[in-house]
């Protein structure tokens, strides 16, 4: 299976398409005239404003003055197994076949959002990437991908032996969270008591940042602010005005480094590790000086192995997962 080299054939390749990147917070839509054509008319809709994914799609199609798409690919922040989709971090639930029929698509493809992002990685330009440590990527070697947003997405690319790539489909964001410091241990205990399982996603995500901050406040006997969002904790951390917010964001970055290092070791990701999602790109230079890189490399005897692996933060004005969704439609 040549994931990035197969080209579509027939009438479907020339027909317009709807592309979507659906997360737990926002649904990003775009239109494409045909396979290989530019991705146009991007619009982002808050998921909470729409009762269903079908309703959000209909709103998008009503807003654009384009021919009705005949095919659709949706990258979604969720495992995709069988016909039924129940989002992990949002209430949307739907049948793939029923959605296709309701919207009149000839073809509807569903794939995990980070699988779609993985498909898009080879097409990213240097201007869309910011390197954080490491050396040069080894051509043709496995590539790791992860990123915190509403949840924690994890994927990657492995070479298929014929010059193409195979994207990984998994749920690596739900691996168990490993504390390194006493402060991290008390946060893990807080998360375990609250959720039953302290997964990486419970800390390395938007809600995870809020929970880390709350756990640190409680541990220090400080009343945590009510109703604070991840954006508020992050802003307070970046301004340096709230020491526990700074500590919480640094802890999130440290744990992201640990998980990213684990992924690099597991895949042998000498082709580099990419970081997507909605949180890290907003941190700017602060992330460069965070504990991320030190924790990425802190693997004992394999520190030197990881020190050579480059890490890139994805900075793209348009969701690269939309291009990955288009790639999914390009497969025969």
Automatic annotation (TrEMBL):
Keywords: ATP-binding, Cytoplasm, Glycolysis, Kinase, Nucleotide-binding, Transferase. ATP binds at residues 20-25. This is Glucokinase. It is found in: Cytoplasm. Its main location: cytoplasm. Belongs to the bacterial glucokinase family. Its EC number is 2.7.1.2. One of its GO terms (biological process) is glycolytic process. One of its GO terms (cellular component) is cytosol. It catalyses: D-glucose + ATP = D-glucose 6-phosphate + ADP + H(+).
């Amino acid at each position: 299976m040549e994931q990035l080299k197969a080209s579509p054939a027939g009438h479907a390749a020339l027909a317009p398409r709807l592309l979507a990147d659906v997360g737990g917070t926002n649904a990003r839509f775009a239109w494409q005239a045909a396979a290989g054509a530019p991705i146009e008319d991007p619009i982002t809709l808050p998921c909470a404003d729409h009762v269903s994914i079908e309703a959000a799609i209909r709103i998008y199609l009503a807003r654009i003055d384009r021919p009705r798409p005949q095919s659709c690919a949706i990258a979604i922040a969720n495992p995709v197994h069988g016909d039924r989709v129940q989002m992990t971090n949002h209430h949307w639930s739907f049948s793939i076949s029923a959605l296709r029929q309701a919207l009149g698509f000839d073809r509807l493809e569903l794939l995990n959002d980070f699988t779609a992002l993985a498909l898009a990685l080879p097409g990213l330009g240097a201007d869309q990437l910011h390197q954080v440590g490491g050396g040069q990527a080894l051509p043709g070697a496995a590539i790791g991908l992860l990123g915190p947003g509403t949840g924690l997405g994890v994927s990657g690319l492995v070479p298929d032996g014929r010059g193409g790539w195979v994207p990984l489909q998994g749920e690596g964001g739900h691996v168990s969270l490993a504390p390194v410091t006493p402060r991290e241990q008390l946060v893990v205990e807080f998360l375990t008591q609250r959720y039953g399982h302290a997964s990486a996603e419970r800390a390395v995500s938007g809600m995870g940042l809020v929970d880390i901050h709350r756990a640190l406040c409680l541990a220090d006997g400080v009343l945590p602010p009510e109703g604070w969002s991840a954006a508020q904790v992050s802003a307070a951390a970046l301004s340096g005005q709230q020491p526990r917010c700074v500590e919480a964001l640094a802890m999130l970055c440290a744990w992201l480094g640990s998980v990213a290092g684990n992924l690099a070791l597991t895949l042998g990701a000498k082709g580099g590790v990419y970081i997507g999602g909605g949180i890290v790109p907003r941190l700017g230079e602060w992330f460069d000086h965070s504990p991320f890189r030190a924790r990425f490399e802190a693997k004992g005897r394999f520190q030197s192995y990881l020190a050579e692996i480059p890490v890139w933060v994805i900075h793209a004005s348009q969701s690269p997962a939309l291009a990955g969704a288009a790639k999914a439609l390009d497969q025969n």
